[in-house]
Amino acid sequence: MQPIFEKNLKKKISTINLGWIQFFLNWKNQKTRIIEFIITLAQIYPSDHQFTERELRAWRRMMKDVGCTNITPFSKDKSQLEFWTYASDFNIDREIIQNLYNDGFLKIKISIPSLNNLSQSYEVTPLNEQKFWNSFQKSLEKNKRGLDGKQRILSIIVEEFGPKELHEKLQVSNHLITSAKHFARINDPGCSTIDKPKVTRTRVTEIQDAQFHTFFSDKNNVSMSSYSVDAKTGLPILYLKENKQSLWEKFEATYPDGIKRTSFMGRLANGQYVYRKDLGGLCNTCNDYGYVVFDLLITLIQGSLHEKSLKQFLINEIENLRYHLRRGFENELVMNIDGTTNHVPCLEHCLLHAFGECNELHNERCENCKQLFIVFQHLEQNLSSEHQQILEESKEKFTYFLAHQAWKKYLNSQYKAQLLDLNEDGDYVGFIQGRPLPHIGNWICFSPEDITKLVERPIHKPTPQILSHTQPYENWIIPLPNFEERVKEYLVAFFLAGDANKTERMSATEMVNTLNQLSKEGEIKGEDIPQIKTVESWITRYSMSLRQKAAEERIINNREKSLNQPLREKNIRNCSKKNTENLQKRQKRNNPNE
């Protein structure tokens, strides 16, 4: 038992040389296997010892580790007594205690002298009565929540005392007494205010709602993130390809009878629709070949050049190139409505040439496409030769990124062209199109006759039994998946306190118990306290996010050191060269004959 004692109790008890083993020996030597926990525990402590909740929790953990079981048949709000047994089959002892409690033979309203602050014996004297009224008067004076807080405090005793006595002892007004009675009848004495239900009304029809979702399903207007989701709705993040005003003008022209501008802007705010100038992270190719390269070039310019005007000129050129590749290039590619494309004189804009199907000459190049080669020409002229390899790799990545953008434009147009063929009156009505593997092989069209030959059993349209619509008596209560902000602040504080000092580290069970204690004190609501499994999952996610953030900071610091290392070595060589020249000049002045 010594390892269990060192694990649970050694750092938690304040009494030196405590005969803790005597507690278990006395328990084992008595005739019954059932004990009252606190009274039996007080026998091995000094008579003036005051237990703390932390010390009692440590004893309970140790007793559970050695195989003891709590069989108390009532909650702590009825009595502080706790009954424990060391029997392996504890159900028999639990049934005995439960029967004694149900039949009224178990005395639970007794004083516990060993817990001075938990003693239930209290004598009412004139001095104690005056202390009671003084404490209430001080609570009303120190209250910081104004009239609402005074109503809540006074509601505790307003039903037990008459208005005359309250006027005499607390000097409160009739209005406050009436408000406190009203508060107690609605929220119960001393309880927090019940939140009023929030009523939401919609003024958007189903047709207008469908128009909005259809507009933002078009890939010409949004780009879907490959991994980011909205925390509230759980839907994937949609990055807007244009600013909100431009999208509203386009939406209004497409759907003149759609939702109003205020509703349109409200739906785009604080949701899954995000407008970012830098759309890095939509997919691995766009992020690695189209956006990370820009940051690398800007960092290279800032660390290698010292002339402010030249540095600003090159950064502006890179920013303009970034905007063109992100916004303009995809819009310059022309696709027909049926998914085909034609020859374009500009080489970068000809999709037929990109697929190796164009045999005509390309004798033009637009100004925006020339900008890519001009930018790299300026970088090669102003940066040292040791950075030429980085520039060549960046140019190849930009070329691959342009091909990736053209491929996305082509695939999106093919999807729309196939949708146009699928109409109710067309030649493909009833057909099913498929192929064995995605992006491999040709599409195979299965006619209704082919489908009939393939199936072994006839296909019947299901006719489910649908009940008539009923009107609910009460609104649906859907639990929210996220923590309340107040509860989350406490959990973060518990976690960081344990991270700073390992002796104060708390488990998920201890966090939930502390939150329950705070709810009894009125700091938080009881229904906002999460379950133990939820807190365990939160601890895992939160610690993982902290480690990921620390790793990202280390990567950024290492990258900055690697970029600044060549410049630092060059400055050291220049300084050593200047110091050598100055030393030689000083020696010549001191020895002119030499």
From TrEMBL:
Residues 575-584 have a biased composition (Basic and acidic residues). It comes from the Eukaryota. Residues 585-594 have a biased composition (Basic residues). Residues 575-594 are annotated as: Disordered. This is Uncharacterized protein. It comes from Diversispora epigaea.
